[in-house]
Write a structure and sequence with these properties.
seven-stranded mixed β-sheet, eight-stranded mixed β-sheet, 46% helix, OB fold (Dihydrolipoamide Acetyltransferase, E2P), 801 residues, 5 domains, 24 strands
């Protein structure tokens, strides 16, 4: 009797050690900071060494045999992660294909997303896989590649179905995104979805649908089922919350508006709009209950052999719902945990929650080596860990309401650390909002949507009734969330310093959570609260006296100037659609990353979209005090009435002087570029000139007027390095030490022009480019020492070109 128990304990302990070591290896950040060739060498060395450690573990019979298992698991995971990274990065299309018009045949693999671009123009975005090259295309490296394509059309959107085969001409580019301090890594996101290239259908000429009907099999069948449900249930609905319902049933969040996202973020209810562990667990519970009911009925006729029914139905329900969501990371984790718990229930054994948690962690990491780059991965697993550590093994309390309050309080405190670590605010409204939202969504909205979907698939009655019930419940919830957001938003977020401080602060935050969530008898909660306050409200390291950051906003310009506690934003990048602009997606996240909660002044150089388009998004995300604009009458009307930017304006902030040197009052010039507001920034002998899009005629006028300095430390190169600007005389007098060019990668204008690059190089300037270097930060310290660096070099990744 003793031997089997001892053997089980041995197996569990060694399995737990193996899982933890594998998880540690898969989470190792070192591989994300080295180049591709180094990763390949690490993979080879790790795989060989891991094999030796496993052999040593098998051969040893001492109490220390667990150590080889620990090291072997870590190195094996390191080799697995590295091999996957190498495979994903090498799967990108060769650079030689970029910009070319390629004839290919492809199959639509995903649920198409249609967006309105204005002026009766539409764009359909979808994933496709290349199945055959067109006539004359000899290079076979494109075969089997997964693409993220956009198909533009006028008058009517292109009607696509998953599984359709098309022949078309496309233009592709390697996965690439903006790279900024605290910014979203779009390239890593693309690679995590196995995208080898992005692009668009180049022309309607030569487009042929190869089959009238979409192929119904394999992975496309799931996508077709999602689209069928979307058309049947949501296309004719007039509910303003239809985008939220669509997200909850099929995981398609494209119809959620920006204002709705703002309310969800402010109230801490974003997690409800992603099909995640909460929803998967609920559906699995429903499946388990149905299976248990059938098992009891079958037991009347067959007493034995029905215990499998409830676990199987739980898994079937969970995996079916996860498939509707596209198997995102939260659903992967939840499905693995449901499967493990179901297996345990079927075998009638007790297994540690943390063992199943570790299995889920290892499973997700083994599937997706880019998972740790996603903030959703950390938040998902952190929330489960907080609930597991805070609830398991504790005495239950009576009352559903008390249990709900306890869970939300645990999440508010426990998630404050991971939210801060990834640069998100801690919403105080989360407890109150989720007390209403979680039961309403879990017990009314989701079940009603599931019944509506089931009725629609089977062709039975009741789909409209269930959909109306879900819409009405969501309308009630939205009224409450909107009220909370409107009335309590001024005191909603804690004034927490953005994450800075490295591993020491992470250790303090983790220790604080362990102490606070520990049992009451441990007497660790008071020290934990003190550690949590130290983590949340620590004094950040002193900011540079002056920091000027040219953000990577593709083909456009956005510059953030920080002078002590004073913040100025010069231009805001472009606006690409009502849902996407650089002000909201790039500039605002950078300001949050550096702890700037308001902007003292925004300067919009002129009306062009690549300079002014992101202003609406920026002003909606952060507080803006005042606005100057080179063409104030040409900007869209908003609550911020811009003042004209005029030559001679001058102000000072924290010993840093700002002066507008162009345009003059009542300038008459037909070119918007020449109305650009030219800003001169000085601190002692350090001089910075930001020139907007001025052309050579304005450069000549400025040189003649004598308002420009004879030498500058840093020059924001006019007009993205166009050959119409940066005259030889202008470059010679400016004689910049650093020349920063803000331009998009492989942009269609050819910026920066090679002659302009040569001109600055011959002048002795050190050139930085946002398309090659990412966001570029120039910082000046009190002692006069300055430093300049591009984000692609400060935070290298093996997938950066």
């Amino acid at each position: 009797m003793i031997f089997p128990r001892a053997r089980t304990a041995f197996f569990r302990s060694h399995l737990m050690v193996l899982l933890l070591s594998i998880a540690a290896g898969l989470l190792t950040p070192a591989l994300l900071r080295v180049n591709l060739s180094t990763i390949e060498r690490v993979v080879q060395a790790s795989s060989i060494t891991a094999s030796l450690f496993f052999c040593l573990w098998w051969g040893l019979k001492t109490q220390w045999r667990i150590l080889p298992l620990l090291f072997g698991g870590y190195l094996a995971a390191l080799s697995i992660q590295g091999a996957q990274l190498v495979a994903r990065i090498n799967a990108q299309i060769p650079t030689g294909f970029e910009g070319q018009t390629l004839a290919v045949r492809f199959v639509v693999e995903s649920l198409p997303v249609v967006k309105v671009r204005g002026d009766n123009r539409f764009v359909t975005q979808f994933y496709a896989r290349v199945t055959q090259l067109g006539a004359g295309e000899q290079n076979a490296s494109l075969l089997g590649k997964r693409l993220r394509l956009s198909w533009y059309a006028t008058g009517q959107a292109i009607d696509l179905l998953p599984g359709q085969h098309w022949h078309a001409k496309v233009r592709l580019r390697r996965p690439r995104g903006t790279v900024n301090p605290g910014g979203f890594d779009y390239q890593a996101w693309l690679l995590s979805h196995n995208i080898s290239a992005t692009g668009y259908v180049y022309s309607q000429a030569g487009v042929v649908q190869l089959e009238e009907r979409a192929e119904w099999r394999g992975r496309w069948a799931v996508q077709q089922a999602r689209q069928t449900l979307a058309h049947a249930l949501f296309d004719n609905s007039a509910s303003p919350q239809i985008g939220l319902l669509r997200a909850l049933l099929i995981g398609d969040k494209s119809a959620i508006t920006q204002s709705q996202w703002d309310v969800l973020r402010a109230t801490g209810t974003v997690h409800l709009m992603a099909i995640s562990g909460l929803h998967i667990g609920l559906v699995a519970t429903i499946g388990f209950a149905i299976g248990a009911g059938f098992a009891r009925v079958l037991a009347i006729y067959r007493p034995a052999g029905t215990t499998w029914l409830a676990p199987v139905l739980a898994c079937a329900f969970a995996f079916s719902y996860a498939a509707l969501a596209g198997f995102e990371i939260p659903t992967q984790r939840a499905c693995i945990m449901v499967f493990c718990f179901s297996l345990v229930a079927w075998r009638g054994r007790q297994v540690s929650f943390w063992l199943i948690y570790s299995l889920a962690l290892v499973g997700v990491l083994a599937i997706d080596p880019f998972a740790p780059v996603s903030g959703g991965f950390w938040l998902s697993f952190a929330a489960v860990a907080v609930l597991g550590f805070g609830l398991l093994g504790r005495a239950p309390r009576d009352g559903v309401l008390f249990s709900l309050v306890r869970v939300q309080a645990l999440l508010l405190v426990g998630m404050s650390v991971p939210l801060t670590l990834i640069g998100l605010p801690v919403p105080l409204l989360g407890v109150l909002a989720n007390l209403v939202a979680v039961p309403l969504v879990s017990f009314i909205v989701v079940p009603a949507l599931m019944l509506a979907g089931l009725a629609s698939i089977t062709g039975s009655y009741g789909d409209d009734t269930m959909l109306n019930l879900a819409a009405q419940a969501m309308q009630v919830l939205w009224s409450i969330l909107s009220w909370l957001h409107t009335t309590a938003s001024p005191v909603n977020e804690l004034p927490i310093t953005p994450f800075q401080g490295g591993g020491v602060r992470i250790a303090i935050g983790v220790a604080a959570l362990i102490c606070i969530l520990a049992p009451r008898g441990s007497h660790l909660r008071s020290p934990g609260v003190a550690l949590l306050l130290l983590f949340l409200f620590h004094r950040p390291p002193p900011s540079p006296l002056l920091r000027i950051t040219h953000l990577d906003v593709q083909q456009g310009l956005a510059v953030v100037i920080e002078a002590g506690d004073y913040t100025l934003v010069y231009d805001t990048g472009a606006r690409y659609s009502p849902e996407f602009d650089m002000g909201d997606r790039v500039v605002a996240p950078y300001l949050a990353y550096v702890g700037r909660q308001q902007v003292d002044r925004v300067v919009i150089s002129h009306r062009d979209n690549d300079h002014a388009g992101g202003f609406a998004g920026l002003s909606g995300a952060v507080s803006v005090t005042s606005v100057l604009a080179g063409e104030p009458d040409q900007l869209p009307r908003s609550e911020h009435m811009p003042l004209p930017c005029e030559q001679g304006q001058h102000w000072q902030a924290n010993r840093v002087e700002f002066e507008v040197v162009w345009p003059p009052v009542n300038l008459v010039d037909g070119k918007p570029n020449n109305h650009s507001c030219v800003l001169l920034v000085r601190y002692g002998s350090t001089v910075i000139l930001i020139a907007g899009d001025i052309e050579q005629s304005v450069e000549a006028d400025l040189l003649t007027a004598g308002v420009l300095p004879s030498k500058v430390t840093l020059l924001s190169v006019p007009h993205h390095g166009s050959k119409t600007s940066s005259s030889a005389l202008f470059v010679s007098q400016m004689d910049p030490e650093f020349a920063v060019i803000s331009a998009g990668y492989n942009n269609r204008y050819g910026h920066p022009h090679r002659d302009i690059r040569r001109r600055y190089t011959q002048q002795g300037a050190r050139i930085f480019r946002t398309d090659l270097d990412g966001g570029i930060s120039f910082s000046l310290q009190e002692d006069g020492v300055y430093h300049i660096e591009g984000e692609r070099h400060r935070r290298p990744r093996p997938w950066f070109d």
